[in-house]
Amino acid sequence: MNILLVLIPVTGLIVLIAVALFFWAANHQQFDDLDSPAVLPLMEDEPVDGPPAADAPPQPIAARLPSTRAEEGHDQPRQVK
Q: Among 4, 52, 61, 81, which is most buried by a count of CB atoms within 10 Å?
């Protein structure tokens, strides 16, 4: 019976930690978008161009790199509702 004197406070501490972690996650927008991560593996990748022709002049490196997130308009801050 003496073990109950230890188990009840330890259980209460674990519950308090779990509740605190849940509210931390909710306040840091961890639950805002629940649908997109499930669909991301199903999305098609952008087609990759084949190797350049042998007689074509070489392209600058910047032209061969994929576009950045800033160029696509993803650098705007998230609007809080």
A: 52
DSSP 35: S
Whether 6 maps to a domain, the answer reads yes
The burial of 76, by beta-carbon neighbours within 10 Å (0-12 exposed, 13-18 middle, 19 or more buried), is given as exposed
Q: Summarize pLDDT for 2-51 with one digit per residue, the tens.
A: 899 999 999 999 999 999 999 999 998 888 887 887 888 888 777 777 66
Domain assignment present for 25: yes
DSSP state letter for 40: G
Would the pTM of this model clear 0.85, i.e. be above it?
no
Domain that holds residue 16: 1-29
Contact 55, 61 (CB under 8 A): no
Total of domains in the chain: 1
Q: How far apart are CA 69 and CA 64, in angstroms?
A: 15
